[in-house]
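Hi there, hope your week has been kind to you so far. It would help a lot if you went through both lines with me. No rush at all, and the record is pasted right below:

***
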Amino acid sequence: MQEITTTDPSAAQQLTTDQLAERVAAIRETLRERMGCPLTDEELDQGPDVLANLYALAAEKMRAQGQLPPPEWVRGHSARGR
């Protein structure tokens, strides 16, 4: 099983590729069952990277408070490069 590589010191807490795929599948199933979401996996894959966007918003708020350095990425691009 291939491990997801990272330079993060908490790398021991990182999920394997298979574990991540299982978690995504479970979240999507819950989304469909509990919220009545009719979107297919392909449609969900084409959507925005919501988690990356939330992290970007939180980082922007922290920067506004002077608690983080300026970003290295271009505003409007998520972690997936969209």
